[in-house]
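User: Here's a structure from my thesis project, written as structure tokens. My advisor, Dr. K., wants to see whether a designed sequence matches the one we expressed. Can you design one independently, without my sequence as a hint?
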């Protein structure tokens, strides 16, 4: 199955657009785990076990593992997700952006070392920075487009003089992903839940590509506005999937020994809110 096949199947099976982001911060771990970086795998695996039937994807953020020399724990976690939730695609949040042999190594890291189904990338260096990832059959990539941080305005919200219609930079990226860059049919876009109006503009330009939407939960994104802006489909069938990510609100729902049960409760409520918001 390709990444998009897996994503659509997981969305149907779990009746969900929710992605749980795995951003482990040992300082926020519950109880006896608190401050112990050797427990990153244990913490994340418990979250995965508690939410695997509620999500359409998982999204581990590589920096949270690398900062604690926990890449081996990430490898172990990837294997665990494959075992307990083989139907749920895993998006490695790495935001890589380089060219040539360096990009080839990053692609190898994502798809061979960690076995991810998709990866997040920066498009700033252009199409040739994507090509090494596109060589992996069936693997997906989400390109940064309209991100959830205020500083995204510095570049993404600037007009492109000389381009027909003078689109915003983020609109131009969306057009490229909808069109000539999407040579394997597995590309998507990252658009922040904090900008629902921009999500709608992106969707108008790129009506069929999947959207990865961070920012719901701790970052303050409106789940209902997000879904209404980005979801496309009818009679329960998704024509252009959206993957709505929540990390901290799920991971740290409780500081007690019930953290996994609390995470499940928040994930379930978020999933239901997202589903109820479909037009």
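Assistant: Designed independently from the structure alone:
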């Amino acid at each position: 199955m390709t990444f998009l096949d897996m994503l659509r199947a997981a969305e149907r099976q779990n009746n969900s657009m929710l992605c749980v982001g795995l951003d482990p911060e040992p300082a926020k771990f519950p109880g006896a785990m608190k401050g112990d970086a050797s427990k990153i795998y244990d913490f994340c695996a418990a979250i995965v076990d508690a939410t695997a039937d509620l999500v359409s994807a998982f999204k581990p953020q590589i920096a949270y593992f690398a900062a604690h020399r926990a890449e081996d724990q990430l490898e172990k976690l990837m294997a665990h997700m494959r075992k307990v939730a083989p139907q749920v695609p895993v998006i490695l949040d790495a935001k890589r952006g380089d060219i040539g042999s360096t990009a080839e190594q990053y692609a190898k890291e994502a798809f061979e070392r960690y076995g991810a189904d998709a990866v997040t990338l920066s498009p700033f260096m252009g199409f040739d920075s994507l090509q090494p990832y596109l060589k992996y059959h069936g693997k997906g990539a989400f390109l940064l487009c309209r991100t959830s941080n205020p500083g995204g305005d510095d570049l993404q919200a600037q007009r492109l003089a000389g381009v027909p219609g003078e689109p915003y930079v983020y609109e131009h990226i969306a057009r490229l992903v909808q069109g000539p860059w999407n040579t394997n049919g597995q590309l998507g876009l990252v658009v922040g839940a904090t900008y629902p109006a921009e999500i709608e503009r992106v969707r108008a330009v790129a009506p069929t590509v999947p959207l990865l939407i961070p920012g719901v939960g701790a970052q303050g994104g409106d789940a209902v506005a997000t879904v209404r802006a980005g979801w496309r489909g009818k009679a329960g069938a998704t024509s252009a999937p959206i993957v709505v990510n929540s990390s901290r609100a799920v991971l740290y729902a409780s500081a007690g020994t019930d953290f996994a049960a609390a995470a499940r409760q928040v994930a379930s409520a978020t999933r239901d809110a997202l589903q109820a918001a479909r037009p």
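When you compare it with your expressed construct, this may help: The chain has a mean pLDDT of 93.
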